[in-house]
């Protein structure tokens, strides 16, 4: 089986594995992380399969950050981290490029 055929994120794009989809366009897909670091932790991925940022053509990368921004605005996340890991030493577990959008709880949450 090719790497692409066995890739869990390619299967999520095709709907062969269920996901909580938050965005889809011709070149981009976004869904909630199955093991979230915080409420609303989302992953934004190119539909083009490639393990690392350096494997993906530029025209499949252009929407990733704007979509992460869209999710931040739509969810009202005021503080958040954007993270993208490349390689095992850099803590990459899934070999299909993905941007993590990790909201921080709003400052007022949990107070009072
Ligand atoms: P990495 O360490 O490769 O940057 O992060 C991979 C992320 O993918 C992890 O946060 C993990 O929870 C998430 N993940 C792995 N498998 C699945 C899955 O089948 N569905 C979803 N929604 N997220 C997944
Ligand atoms: Zn893939």
From TrEMBL:
Lineage: superkingdom: Eukaryota
Domain (HIT) ranges: 8-111
GO molecular function: hydrolase activity; nucleotide binding
Active-site residues from the entry: 98
Cofactor requirement: Mg(2+)
Signal peptide (from-to): none
Catalytic activity, reaction form: adenosine 5'-phosphoramidate + H2O = NH4(+) + AMP
Family listed: Belongs to the HINT family.
Protein name per its UniProtKB record: Adenosine 5'-monophosphoramidase HNT1
Source species of the chain: Neohortaea acidophila
Covered range of the whole protein: 1 to 112 of 136
């Amino acid at each position: 089986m090719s790497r692409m055929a066995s890739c869990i994120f390619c299967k999520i794009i095709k709907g062969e594995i269920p996901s909580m989809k938050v965005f889809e366009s011709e070149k981009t897909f976004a869904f909630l992380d199955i093991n979230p670091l915080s409420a609303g932790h989302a992953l934004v991925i190119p539909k083009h399969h490639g393990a690392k940022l350096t494997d993906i053509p530029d025209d499949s990368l252009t929407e990733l950050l704007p979509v992460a921004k869209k999710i931040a605005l739509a969810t009202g996340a005021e503080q958040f981290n954007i993270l993208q890991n490349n390689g095992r030493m850099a803590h990459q577990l899934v070999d299909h490029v993905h941007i993590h959008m990790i909201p921080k709880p709003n400052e007022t949450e949990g107070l009072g």
